[in-house]
Amino acid sequence: MSLQIDGHEFLIGGRVKEPHFETKNLFSGWRIPRYIISHYTGGGVGKYSLESLAEKDLAYHVLIDRDGSFYQCGKFNKVSSHSGLSNWKGRHGMNQLGIGVSMACYGSSAKKYNKEGVEAVHKNNAEGKAKIFEPFTEEQIQTYKEICSALCEEYPSIRNIIGHDDVSVGRRDDPGPFLESAIEELRTDLSAAGKLKLEKERKSFKARVVAEPGDDDAAVYYDYNRANVKTRLEKGTQLSVLSQVYKSKGDSYVLIDRYSVSIDGISLYGFMSGKNLSL
Question: What pLDDT, on a 0 to 100 scale, did the predictor assign at position 274?
Fold first, then answer.
């Protein structure tokens, strides 16, 4: 499958991609995309998920079905309602900045719908507790990589490929643990090929650890590549602050004084209380 983009939508063989699922949940006006934000639907067949989302005034730009085929849901220069309450490195409202790419998959709802899944630890689960997730198909992963590559080549403004679970920590767990390696491979390969110029760290979102390592309430840092490994960081350790965490309150969510942080990009990842950081 050779993907080209023209008029802010995919072409295959010189024609607009079919099937083309037109959604009304796109806002008018031009925007310049800075991120690809990855999702799963939490459901089965792609078409039915799109119809269900449309009823809730939600939409992706692209949805990849289980066989690797995909729906074009709207032009990439239009804002789509796919990320909801979200923030990343001090920016809030990621719908305005991100192209939403999703895959038809039950994800962490596999057990709920009596579907087969695999136990895995989500990187945002600080206790290291495993949960059942439905993995993506090989065909979906391959198409996902091709779509991300084409988007980065067409839009040099894109600065990162991230997940809904990166920008809505505490609210969402998609795309989850079975896309992490593919995203990391894309970052590495596209950067090496000159197709993705990863965002520079904003000075305002660098921080240092101010708590003493021996303090009882000093922040605990989690390396999600080894579930439930806990390390106390030395005072003065420099971190990148990625996202502020959400917590449910009644029927909505509020931001709390807790942040996802990383050292050396995203190779080491964990959480800290704001009181332990020089924000």
Answer: 86
CA distances from 211 to 43, 151, 208 (A): 43, 42, 9
Mean pLDDT, range 86-94, rounded to an integer: 93
162: left (phi over 0), alpha (psi -120 to 50) or beta: beta
Residues near 189 by Cβ (< 8 Å), separated by ≥ 6?
Answer: none
Residue 159 has pLDDT above 50, yes or no: yes
pLDDT at residue 82 is higher than 90: yes
- 67: Cβ contacts below 8 Å, ≥ 6 apart: 137, 139
How far is it, in rounded angstroms, from Cα 109 to Cα 104?
12
Beta-sheet strand order (sheet of 98-103): 70-72, 62-64, 98-103, 35-40, 160-163
E strands present in the chain: 4-6, 9-12, 15-16, 26-27, 35-40, 62-64, 70-72, 79-80, 87-88, 91-92, 98-103, 118-121, 130-133, 160-163, 206-208, 220-223, 229-232, 238-249, 252-263, 268-273
Average confidence score pLDDT of the chain: 84
Gyration radius of the chain's alpha carbons? 19
Q: Which of 225, 91, 75 is nearest to 83 (CA)?
A: 91
Report pTM: 0.90
SS3 28: coil
Three-class secondary structure of residue 122 per DSSP? coil
Site of tokens 């101010």? 210
Neighbours of 161 (CB within 10 A): 26
User: Rounded to whole angstroms, how far apart are CA atoms 212 and 196?
Assistant: 38
pLDDT in tens, 202-259: 666 777 777 665 554 455 555 444 445 556 677 787 888 999 999 999 889 999 988 9
3-state helix, strand, coil in the chain (%, to 5): 20, 35, 45
Angle at 63 (CA atoms; ends 47, 191), nearest 5 degrees: 170
